[in-house]
Amino acid sequence: MKVVSVKNIEKIFKVGKSTxxxxxxxxxxxxxxxxxxxxxxxxxxxxxxxxxxxxxxLADKGTASVDGFDVVNDYKQIRKRVGYMPGxxxxxxxxxxxxxxxxxxxxxxxxxxxxxxxxxDIYVQIEKFKTxxxxxxxxxxxxxxxxxxxxxxxxxxxFLDEPTxxxxxxxxxxxxxxxxxxxxxxxxxxxxxxxxxEASLCDRVALIQDGKILDIDSPKGITKKFxxxxxxxxxxxxxxxxxxxxxxxxxxxxxxxxxxHHVTFKDVRESVNDMQARLHKLGHTSIKFKKIxxxxxxxxxxxxxx
Amino acid sequence: MNxxxxxxxTKRFGSFTAVDQISFNVEQGEIFGFLGANGAGKTxxxxxxxxxxxxxxxxxxxxxxxLYKDAEKIKKNIxxxxxxxxxxxxxxxxxxxxxxxxxxxxxxxxIKEKTASLSHTLKIDDKLNTLVRALPLGWRQKISxxxxxxxxxxxxFLDEPTxxxxxxTRREFWTMIFEAANEGTxxxxxxxxxxxxxxxxxxxxxxxxxIDALGAPQELKEKFSAKDMGEVFxxxxxxxxxxxx
Lengths: 306, 245
Description:
Number of helices of chain B: 9
Oligomer: heterodimer
Order of helices and strands of chain B: EEEHEEHEHHHEHEHEEHH
Radius of gyration of chain B: 18 Å
């Protein structure tokens, strides 16, 4: 069953005298129980799409349904069924942790006790601060409280807008483990993130840039489509290697990737030995080329070029 | 030559020790990565080094000036940008350059010259009179970096400069960092992207207010038998006792 279905959605904003197209002809579907990632940088349209699907904003064109209900006509039904964690902390800062949670439970005619099993793993980590005002919590704690509040009415679909932005690598990993556990509770999850490395943790992802979907597939499906041979390059002087590779006519693209550069050549049959010789002439030492598999970020950058 | 030298720098808030006797040196022209989990004490340490917060104890010199006596001189000799605070959104690019140039005491002629050279190198000739609010984030961050460098500071502090930026722009941004360092500017940078930690000459990792590891990425990877900096970070930060509360 399709739990989220989006067809030809378009959204245009007026900014002063000009207009900005935030979403262009967006279409995709999410199956029940899927962990679906919306991967793209700031300003790519992720939040606008979340707002439309959670019935907080109307699209200019297109249709969408969530859990079988139309986002325009059946918005009241949708609001009962979805959990939404916005990118910006939106709980009541002057209520305590426990007051916030019981407030959200009451809004949905339920109680903390009734659905405690669902939030237990998350809530136990902040329970010792339950009398603290939400505004006085740290970033990580706020995030856990917001997730608890979004879950307390046992939603069938969970919308998480950039839950890991600005969060360190360790906490990010813990958060994704939490999501995997929630998925086992039969909750469909739509999560957005600007971190490309998180794509591999999703069942399927949509890569989004400039309001357009670049590709939708499983993470493996996306990386398989990268259709030119990809090489990693290393040498003693990595910065010079980057500028030199970029200036060579034989090179199609060259991007720094941590401890190596990822390179594609204009001619797929390009000989690595010839490349090494060229770089050697330019004064490089310890030059190493290695054939590698493309990652999501390689694909994203390739697709960005159109 | 050291442009930052820090000995036993400590900051306490009541009974809580946010930064606990950290010591390190940063050389001129180095790209120094300042890593740590949320709540490890990075921001507090950075605020002290920028002359915005007085240490509780310890010694530090930044750009040759003492943290206690010459905080104002430090501010004149450093540049700063972060993801959260960069340019004024309700001013145009030209007005932002004018504003920051004025703050740092550039003459009108110098500001004019800077405006021209920036618009040329960043290819924003036709955007100079656009409000910053209307620019994509990646552009804003690149312009913001150039503006933070407008007074040719000895050191530039970058606090998560690439958060949320698209992957191509993120790399263009790092190319700008490499170029600045090549020209002798010292770069002090924090990031949550572990691939970016690999671009630094040396990296320090803070855990619970202390510096638990310091060295070139290659050294740290060998020391912790890790395949990349992400793994080094995970190994160290997992040992953190204090949460980010």
